[in-house]
Design a protein that fits this description.
6-stranded mixed beta sheet; alpha/beta; 18 strands; Nuclear Transport Factor 2, Chain: A
Amino acid sequence: MSSGSRVPLCLLVLTLSLVSMAPLRVWSQASPPISLQSSDETALRGLTEQYGQALASGDLEKIREFWEPKSPDLATRLGFYQSFFATSRFQFLGIKITRADVTGEKAATQLRADERLLDKATGTPLMDRDVFHGAVRLINWTKTGAGWKIERESLLQEDLAVDLERSASDAERRILFENKRDLTTDVLVRILIDRSTRHRLSGEFEAAALSVRLAQQVAEQIDDKIGTAKTWLYLAMVKDAQGDVENVLPLRERALALYTEAGSKLGEAIALFTVAHTYHQIGNYPKAFECALKSLHLAEELKHRSVMAHALSEMGHVYMYQNDDEQALVYFEKALSIFQELGDKIQIAIARVTIVYRHEHLGNYDQALQIYNELLKQTERRGDQIGGAELRYHIGNVHRFQGRYAEAMEDYRKSLEVSDARNFASTSIPTLIALSGLYLAEDKYEDALPLAERAASLSRQILDQRSLNFALASLGYCHLGLNHHAEARRAFAEAISTIEELRAKTTGGIEERQHHFELMLDGFHGMLSLMVSENQPVEALVYAERSKARGLLDMLQQGRANIHKAMTGGEQNEERRLNTELTRLNLELSRAGQPLGRESEHFKELQKKLERARLEYEAFQNALYTSHPELKIQRGEAPVINLKELTDLLPDASTALVEYVVTEDRIYLFTITRAAGAAQAEIKVHVLPIKKDELARQTESFRRQLAARDLGFRVSGSRLYKLLLKPAEAELQGKTNLIIAPDDTLWDLPFQALMNGANRFLIEDAAIAYAPSLTVLREMTKRRNNQHPEALAATLLAVGNPLVRKETMNHAALTLRDGKLDRLPEAEQEVRALRQLYGASQSKVYIGAEAREDRVKREAGQARILHFATHGTLNNASPMYSHLALAEGDANEDGLLEAWELMQLDLKADLAVLSACETARGHVGAGEGMIGLSWAMFIAGVPSIVVTQWKVESAGTRDLMVNFHRGLISRPAGGKPKPTKSEALRRAALGLLKNPATRHPFYWAGFVLVGDGG
């Protein structure tokens, strides 16, 4: 379920108004009304006033007594009131009966009043204003044997809103405003906003935007600051729905500022949780939590239960996306409890599904099953067969996770039987894919094949590219298992093409953007497996690189919608327009094709428009990359590394490139070496027979042993060496310089501490550098070769032991597991030693309160080497919000230098060192571990970065760092070459290793060099 849907739904609930589903138009002038006899007029005026009192009482039976039983609007109206009065009530102020007309057996009265919409339990206002002024209800009566009865009820402001939307020009609208001045109140603002919501949820984005603009015009005309603020909130929703995520946050912040200016605390609370929602969409979880917490405090002060629940839900999502599922569940369950009190069925369903997903993720399968089964009973009682089919699919997933494959198979079959019978492809497709996967797990390829074929066919029919990718990957594996290599190649190739198209269309700020690419690697892995089976290691490596380089970029783009560093303002606007158009057309097309509209002319015309829009976007991209070649690496569009470029990365026979690809049931190990005098590199691939889960268990166990200074680490280190490197021992024999491109959980593995057959640490025999992928390494190496350090004013910029304020500590605590940013006195000693090493004239060193964020931003571009002896957080869940903790200084800075801010800097440094940092461990995606800050530094211009894999010991860090820098600037005697960065780091680590007091890998193995090690 898209997280983007929660805010629109909740605000729809908060803006309930008495609006007829089909508003009655004013009586036709062809039959002018006649005056009622005095007794009839008096009776109707009295009835109208009594009806208003019945509405205020919330007594549904009293309201029913006023209505004609045969009225076509009765059921809809009573249904609305029943839902509203369950948790809310009206209060009318100054009721006036302003019209009483009759035409034969028909009559119409108007009830005008100021009104309040209140929480039934607490008496607090439901909405962002206390009183709505001048609401005019048109009540149409019919004369029956039992007297005058209501036939229809509507708001005249609704009629005016419809006319305003339908007007062909602004001139027509001005006339309407002039003629209907008495209806131009804050009620009209509310109605227009409500209509915008309905248009938006129907995918009518232009109509939704028009309604908001009209509401804004009315609000400004009557000097309604609260109404104006609300229009900015709803314009943000339209932009969000269109995929224009970049403009959502400024609009919501503008609304927040207006609410604050107007003194509307409830408006502030609502705006704050929508701002929080946007921050969690773009991956800024500390800011999301901060805004949600402020919203919660305001809502508690106002006793506004709905806003309290939404704020709690947003706080839950912050923890969820940081993989703290236990804490997330606490907040979700609190929110659910309030939604249940309110009887908010939509939010109850959303909260329960979110909770059950968390239980699945935590492995709480019994709890997940309990919730799913309760929901299944409810849907069956309602006769909702489609809902039941969807739930059976999810129940099947839980059974599959539990290893109860026979039950999962039965669940999937029952789900498929219903969804096929009802022609509900969106449920049939994932069920078919899941069934195919079960058969694949049992090597029953012939049984799996027709299911995957059907899933692919249905996905094409309804233009569901996401599902098509999974279906094609499953189909490819079926053919691969049956040795149908040509068919497997076609299926995997189409899956990859589909992924690329999805990636091109994906916009930021929605859940799919954050996670879709990592979850869609099966096509790449399948093609890699096929190439290995055909003994084509070069081609296999190409597909490994295509998955890892692209996946890396997508994960880093979680933090911002687009990278615009080199684009002009006009180019940014054009890209935004094209992306919005693609999103809109895809949404329209998917709706038009569900489930039987694919043969309509409208559907075919939309297909043509989409094709034109795609071609236009491709033309724009080609022109963009021609004008700005540097965008290729920034946008993840750099071509995959080729054999010649791989050879160029191997300066001599002592260097080897090592790349891993982790899949569910095996690991692929590539080695790239170059024999002395050889013109071309040699690529070999090994298949390691270990499942992903078991590898993760062994890796984490070893890492914990080292971080805890466990003396029993040697057995684990030896076992992992035999598993991961011994198969390639022949190719790696005598190699003294290793460049490793890990994958998945291997990013957490300190290869330098592995034990070889001679009971020696790997680092004793080879310098080691890490790279996100070999394609990225190529780009980093280019950066180093293009640097001109001699032109820089200073060699070193170092900051140590910054004075971090309490608020900054609290801000950082969300991503630090222990929530602490302790002082670092040894870090201060460290940077003072570096100043002596480089010389005062060639260094700038800042300590304590002087180590300010604004100063670092201003001066970092002038240094060849950057050294940060401070706390830092590498945030795997949202890499662009990884950060370094600094002193605040400038009032515009928060003391957290975040990765997205680093990317904006123009750095010319050859090396950045993040000393004494802690890695905040969280989600490690396929090919994505521990690369947020290093990638940001790379985009900013730095080709090499030293980071740490666990909380390191300060005194040992000081010694290692000083020796590392000493090695970098040393001039070896006898004409020997200067050590590379990776060799300098190795020698510094060996200095600690040779000291009995610091021999344990805890002291030296946590330091790794990511990027160019030359």
